[in-house]
TrEMBL record:
Matching Gene3D superfamilies: Ribonuclease Z/Hydroxyacylglutathione hydrolase-like (3.60.15.10)
Organism: Candidatus Acutalibacter pullicola
InterPro entries for the chain: RibonucZ/Hydroxyglut_hydro
Pfam short name (any one): Lactamase_B_3
Protein name: MBL fold metallo-hydrolase
Amino acid sequence: MKVTFITHSSYFVELDHCCLLFDYYQGDVPQVDKPLYVFASHSHGDHFSPAIFQLAQEEKKVHYLLSDDISPRQVPEDLRGQTTFVAPRSFYEVDGLKVATLRSTDMGVAFLLQCEGQCLYHAGDLNCWVWDGAPRFQNDQMVQAYKEELELLRGKKIHVAFVPLDPRQEADFDLGMKYFFEAAGADYVFPMHMWGDYSVVPLFKSTPTYREYASHVMDVSQPGQTFTL
C-alpha cells in the first residue's frame, strides 16, 4: 500500500488493484492506471470540490462516494450512474468495496471501509471540536458525542486511519486523536486538517502521555509526501 498526502484532509491510497482518493479539493493527484474510488465526507470547500469530476475524463474507471449533504446538482449528468450518495450510519457496497459510515460531529460522514483485505478509516470532520471560550456545556456535549460515535469503531482492526489534528483548537488540538486511540487506534495513523501547521505532529508525538501512540502516528510534514506501508 502506498499513501500520498495531497493537502489538508486529502489523501491518495494506492492498493494492488485500485486506488482511493479522500476529500480532495486541490493539489496534485498521482496518476495511476487503476480503478479509482473518490470519497467526499461533506460539502465544505476544504473537503469537496467539483474538480473531482474531471478525474473521470481521463477514461479510467472512477466511482464517487459522496456524503448526501452534497447536492446531486453538483454531479455532471453523465457521471450520476457512477455516483453513490451516502448517509450517516449506513452501509454500502460498490464493486466489492464495503463502506460503513459514521455521523460527523460537524457535517456529513466519516468512512470506514474494507478493501483488498485492508480496513481503512477516514474521519472527515468527525472530530472532538472543543474550543477555548466556548460554553462549558457545549464542549462537554461535544466530547460526549464524539466518544459515542467512536464506540462504533471499538474492536475494529484498523490498518490505516486519517484523523484530524487541528492547531486552531490550541490546547485542545490533541483531543480528537487521543480519543480515537483510546477507542480503536490503527497500525498507521495519518494526521490531517492541520491547515499547513505541521508542528502539531511532533508536538503530539512528543507528549509523554501519548508515548504508546507515537510510533503509530506518521510524520506528515508537507504536501506530496508518499509513504509505503
